[in-house]
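so im writing up the methods section and need the SWIM zinc finger family protein record in one place, dumping it here so i stop losing it
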Amino acid sequence: MSQSAHAYAYLRPSAVLDGAAGRSLALETSGGATPLGDAAHPRFFAGFLAEPAPAAAALLAVADVAAARYYQPQLRASLDPVVTANGDRLRFESFSGCCGVYARLDVLAAGLDGDAIGHGTTNVDVNNPLREALTRIAPAEPLHLAVGPDALEVTTFDGPVVEKKVPLPERWLRGFAETQVTAAGFDLRAELPAAEAVRFLRSLPRGGRAGARTVQWVVLAGRTLRPTTRPVAGAVCLPGPERLAALQRVLRHARALRIYGPPVVGDGPTASAWEVELPGMRLTLTLSPDASRGFSGEGGVLGALATNTAEPDADLVEALLAWEPRIEVAELAEQAGLTPARVRAALTRLGTAGQIGYDVAEAAYFHRRLPYEVGRAESANPRLKAARALVAAGAVRLEEGGATAVVTVDDHIQRVRTEAAGAVGCTCLWWAKYRGGRGPCKHVLAVGMVREARAQDGGHQEGAR
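--- predicted struct ---
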């Protein structure tokens, strides 16, 4: 697994400060992107938190996920959360070290009282003294929030006085890409009022054996959730229930619990999202289909990346984005002169650089900007590279009618069949094992590439060997 050293540089540690005007939560920022370009220490907000205690607890929950490994927990992890200012809200995001849990705190306009919220993305310092101070925030005391230093403070320092260097695996970036594709397939499956939400979440296990593969299914029954032994219609998968432990921090502030998941197809485990509504905020944990299975290997982005149009379309769409809190696909398609399907494929490609997220509560994409190049994760994906090699070698032959294709690999062949409804299947071992549950195999990807090229050539390309 490829890794690179990622450095966070801060002017000083984040802290809860006592002053003549009361207490202040000062979150220090590292290098980030803004509408005016890259900034060493961007400032996104200064004002008061409308609900200090819930906000402090929710920030701690996001930090808990960043510091956790739910699979093989003996291996330490610590990545500073990402914060994105979208003009009308602040979003704090983190991934677990095992890449199987994605946490996001949306502090909405109703949760903030102060200056206009800026635009941009950066990392914020979350250190142990800050965590301890956040646990002592009282419900009634006013709490000022500053995300980033002001301009005068920046000029008084010669350079960063706090620097953290952490190994940043490639899978962390790929996780950002996969979660937005996965979540875009979710629908709201259940909503519980506060009392039932607290009762259910407190009934879940808080720890588990390393590598344990506990999968539960739940279905809405009246105002509560009922466990079910099999994935019936409307059920939601709860893979590794102990991975929701971070939500325990905010239970006393919860107003409701909303659960999102994909339609039930088959009996295999699926990802799901668990959103706790807080005063002026939403805290969401998205779980991968298995505690031992990180989002980075799901393969949901591969179909979009395999198209010939995704790269130029992504360049066009990227120029139209500006840290919007809600990206309307239809509106973006009209602006770019593209079909909605091509816009979604372009957004998926931008997601491989961490530029796109998906908010299940609003059923909409949102824009952020991380310091990665578009295409970096794509170029490192082994299935995509293998598929392109098959096409380049002329290993794909479309049979008469086009519903079936033969892919020749060394001394054996695989058959790819597409049903009239669009369902695809392959005779390879990968497909037999996952049934498309972890994205398309290299043979399906290669066949899709050849079919697209034939369509663009007016049906004259044979793609045979």
